[in-house]
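Students often ask why inverse folding is considered easier than folding. One informal answer: many sequences map to the same fold, so there is more than one right answer. In these notes we will look at a single instance of the problem. The structure comes first.
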């Protein structure tokens, strides 16, 4: 996101475009709208009471990318707390956020919110998908290990502890620099194994479940995010309708 507009890109097809945002609208998530079968993508937006125009309604809005239509109001004023929650995870056709020991869930089909139980652990968790299940990771000890929990019964909100990844923090710190706990995320690789991306000094490190260093990348100011990309060579039809649409141009060259 940049000032006044969103930046949309598909790294696989090297498509890039800008999406101007109406004043006061804050993006909460982006998702494919599967029931249409047309490759439609939608944005979930929030308009707060303090930022809205006198004739606008506060709450959540849906914007269909490339439709040329204005955002559609769906209500849900009470989810304003999601504004300061970074990143959402798409699972079972729903967006998920962790906020204050509760997981907020937005069903993209019914366009309704609900609350879901989170693992009972101290501190914030990071959500991701692994082995076809919703998963959560949390730092312990306080920065030497990461626990991974799985929603083994998603419908009944039953969580179970699955793994603990012990990080060789002292060894990695001596070689690469001090760990930045806020720049560490867990994700599932294509073969289903959990991997950790951790920031040590100016290095971004990839560590496997046994705590072994798999890869390293040096770059000042570079760190992981909670955004996870699934490569697709499908040319999204909404891109050409957006401002500044380019292919194989800046920022890819």
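Output (designed amino acids):
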């Amino acid at each position: 996101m940049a000032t006044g507009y969103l930046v949309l890109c598909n790294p696989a097809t090297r498509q890039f475009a800008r999406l101007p945002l109406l004043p006061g609208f804050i993006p909460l998530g982006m998702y494919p709208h599967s029931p249409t079968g047309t490759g439609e993508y939608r944005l979930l937006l929030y308009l707060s009471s303090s930022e809205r125009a006198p004739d606008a309604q506060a709450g959540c809005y849906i914007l269909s990318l490339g439709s040329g239509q204005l955002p559609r109001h769906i209500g849900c004023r009470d989810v304003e707390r999601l504004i300061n929650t970074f990143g959402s995870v798409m699972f079972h056709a729903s967006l998920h956020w962790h906020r204050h020991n509760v997981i907020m869930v937005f069903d993209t089909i019914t366009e309704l919110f609900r609350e879901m139980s989170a693992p009972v652990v101290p501190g914030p968790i990071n959500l991701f998908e692994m082995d076809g299940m919703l998963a959560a990771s949390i730092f312990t000890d306080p920065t030497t290990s990461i626990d991974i929990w799985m929603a083994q019964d998603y419908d009944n909100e039953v969580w179970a502890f699955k793994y603990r990844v012990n990080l060789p923090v002292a060894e990695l710190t001596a070689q690469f620099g001090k760990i930045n706990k806020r720049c560490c995320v867990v994700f599932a690789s294509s073969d289903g194994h959990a991997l950790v991306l951790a920031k040590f000094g100016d290095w971004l490190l990839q560590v496997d479940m046994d705590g072994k260093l798999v890869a390293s990348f040096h770059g000042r100011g570079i760190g992981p995010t909670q955004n996870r990309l699934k490569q697709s060579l499908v040319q999204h039809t909404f891109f050409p309708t957006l401002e500044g649409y380019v292919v194989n141009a800046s920022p890819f060259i």
